[in-house]
Amino acid sequence: MAIFDVSDLEKEYDLLVLRVAELRSDEMRKLICGDYRAKLAALWQGPFEFYVWLDSDAIVWGDFTSHVRTDVDFQIFWSEISVASDVVETPSWLSHFYFDPEKLQRFDPDFNWRGNSYFSAGVFACRRNAISFTNWLKVETWSKQVPGLFSGFGDMGPLNYHVHSMAQRGELHIAQSDLQHIWEHHGVAELEEDCSDAGWRFPASIRRPGVAHFCGRKPFLFDRKAYSRPFTIARLEHHRHHHGELGAWAALLNEDLRVIFGKVERRVKRFVFGQGI
């Protein structure tokens, strides 16, 4: 398993680094090593009693700490109810992104999939051990018994099921807040308004502080179909601390070029091996 050097981040931001190999439980290490489940280490053996999780494609956009609800066990960073409580037919996106409600009935016939706010697993706030490792393992066995029970979008399906089913049973106190902006869903007008007078710096004033989440198309400079300005601003602010203004742009361009060259290399390899050359 590759060990990434994050010493520069430790010095810059006074980080506490949690590595999968250092987890106390051998069973836990086997479950989460090498895939999307690695983020769950913070849930079971993280250093904080209550924490906010952000995937690497999300950035803090303004100071929203006063809106974090430490009086609950789990805070959903989403304001919309995704499925009306009186809907009859199962929406196709539910099984595509989260889980198949009909297949879940086999294991949890009392679970009501309607009237819930389905959220991205890339941004949320949570109390440590709000969902126990034992309960998570139990649901993992369900997915092995019934293929297609959960979607292929990492831990998003299981996490949403745990949060909403436990809340319905009174085992988890949850809240939801309008603290996440996904440009492919909300559009870019609000973020562009924040950035209008800021150039390539963090805006002095942000109208609705929260998390800007760039799930979907990733915010690379060379992808014309992706929106990247706030994410680019955050990257530049980090690099300026070490490289100055021009050096920050050079570091950013170097990062994106490495991504492009990596994609080209993988495509060439697939073509070569596919042709049997």
Descriptive notes:
The structure is a single chain. The chain is α/β, with parallel strands linked by helices. The protein has a domain at 7-48 and 84-175. The protein has helices spanning 7-13, 26-32, 41-45, 92-97, 101-104, 133-145, 156-168, 183-186, 189-195, 229-275; strands at residues 50-54, 58-61, 74-76, 123-127, 174-176, 180-182, 210-213. The chain has a 4-stranded mixed sheet with strand order 1-4-3-5, with no helix packed on it. Strands 2-7-6 form a 3-stranded mixed sheet.
What distinguishing features does this structure have?
277 residues; alpha/beta; 4-stranded mixed β-sheet; 3-stranded mixed β-sheet; 10 helices; 7 strands
Strand fraction equals 5-15%
Provide the gyration radius in Å.
21 Å
Distance between the termini: 30 Å
Helix/strand structural class: alpha/beta
What percent of residues adopt helix (DSSP H or I)? 40-55%
Mean pLDDT across every amino acid position: 92
Q: How are the strands of the biggest sheet laid out side by side?
A: 1-4-3-5
